[in-house]
Request: fold
Amino acid sequence: MPRAADLPLTLTPLTSEDAAMPLHRRLYFILRAAIFDGRLTVGARLPSSRAMAHQMGISRNTVLTALDQLMAEGFIESRQGSGTRVVARPLPPSLAAREAIPQSPLQGRAISRRARELAELESPFGRASLLPLAPGLPDLDAFPHREWSRLLARRWRRPSRNLMVPQDAAGHPDLRAAIAEHLGRTRAVRCTPDQIILVAGSQQGLDLTARVLLDPGDQAMIEDPCYGGLKGALHAAGAQPVPVRVDDGGFDPELAQRLWPEARLACVTPSHQFPSGGTMPLERRLALIDWANRRGGWIVEDDYDSDFRYAGAPLAALQGLDSGNRTIYCGTFSKSMFPSLRLGWLVVPEDLLPAFLAVRRMADVAPSALTQSAMADFMAEGLFAAHLRRMRSLYAERRLILLQAAGRHLKGLLEVTSGDAGTHAIGWLVPEADDRVAASAAEAHGLAPSPLSRYRMNPGSPGLIIGYGNTASTMIETAILTLARALR
Reply:
């Protein structure tokens, strides 16, 4: 019978992460590894907890905690009169090597080809930067936190039982009705509440649309440059995103048809092209609708920031012109409320609703019922409309300050242009410049404009996307001066 002996083990940490680990966890892993690789064989008798504590210079309670964990997991057993012995067998050599040698991500793993392709795509979803000039963020300090907190508390203080059970896959009926009314009044969208499906942000809406409308290998035309998450959603559905270079009028349907006659889907941002800021004129909108009806294709209209327009009334949505019902309209509260709200919507033609809802149920049911109900109250009480009016005025002021400051301080470095909507401008660099290098230089100076090339599929003019939504009016002049220093 093997006898208890000094353990050929130490508690010296191998990495800084080990050093931060509690002693009992380190001892547990050391003993488990010794059993896995055969240094402690079946039947080997461990020293007493007192002897082990003395040998390793740690407390007996630490040893007992580690041994209790090993015993609970079946590695050792303790019997009266025979001490504590190993009962688990060593791992086979192939598994022992895998346990001992850390592997790089995805190394030798049998994942799908599509997952490998998605893993290789550049992610557009880095952590949202709170640094000045970061695009894509609204003013988080100007959000009406008190009113929003009140509505959440009211809903949760005495929650309806309906809020605590799975929801309809289409979403909260009161919020769908409020969105339908808002879209009809401000964007001339033709829809009923029944045509609205609530999603966890526009990204999920784009993913759902691609899965319903496209088969693997189908071509989907996208604007170049465009929102980076769109390419990922199309790849995830097995579709092939194909680029159409935009100009001052945004997406050009005539060019698109020449380039990609077999395409099944066109994804556009007609009211405020992202990121260039162009607006698709009426004749192009009608031509795109005509293409969809003749081709039997589909249009995805991403109206991501339609609530913030500074010249005249908001433009009517393309969807409202489409009498053939070939358009899926996508919107979000991320720009008007705050990004982590994770609430968006699709307006879906009635005959497609059963398919969209069936695919939706296979992914998830709906966003949080509490959040949906609070948002419905926020809109019903007029708080959303009032918030939009305040933010529209605030962003218009910031846009003007930014353009004026750029004119004074960025001559010869950036030519800054801005459309009549949204919360960002484009700073065009000289043709030979590298916008990623420029963005890195800006970040080193505490700013976070985004390189335009990140959103392109084909090479194009270099530039920086400069956000002013979450940069205070009093900070814009200083930020532009700092950007000028960084670029020099």
Remarks:
- The CA atoms of residues 268 and 301 lie 5 Å apart.
